[in-house]
Amino acid sequence: MFPDNTIEKGEMPVIRMEQFERQDFMQLIGWIESPEFMVQWGGRTFNYPLTEEQLENYIRSNALIYRVVYEENDEVIGHINLTVDPVNNSGRIGKVIVGRRDLQGQGIGQQMVQKLLNIAFGELKLHRVSLGVFDFNHGALACYEKAGFVKDGFLREARKVGSEYWNLWEMSMLEQEWLRRQ
Fold this sequence. Notes:
Blueprint: E1 15-19, H1 25-31, H2 35-42, H3 52-59, E2 64-70, E3 75-85, E4 90-98, H4 108-123, E5 128-134, H5 138-147, E6 150-161, E7 164-174, H6 175-181
Parallel strand pairs: 4-5
Antiparallel strand pairs: 1-2, 2-3, 3-4, 5-7, 6-7
């Protein structure tokens, strides 16, 4: 845990991304606290409750899966992934979470996305990176827009959750847009 004085107001914690491994399963499971949150985080990939068996299949997938580590004390504080489509030279960001609630809203999500974009465009030389976000998730929308993502389209009532239908924004960034921001 962070000492109370570790992060000064307005100061962003420094993070690094490392490969997500079996040792991270239980912490991630603990962060997924409801079926509704599972839909937001896990999409159609996972069913609530999240289990080690589901995560075993996940780490065997072709996705690049990362735990997010706070550098000062090596605490795992988040999770993010990138699925690559080599045929279309594109990627899709997903499974984004800042698991420490007290760190949400401090720019860590944007830092995570920026680091993943550096991998996608800088290392993998992808042409396009996309993501989807529900319209009511204002914090995530703001994070992705600050990172440079553009809204491509609005999918009305795209996902049924219980008796409700949720709207989804599709967003993307192109390599030349990322290069202009560097």
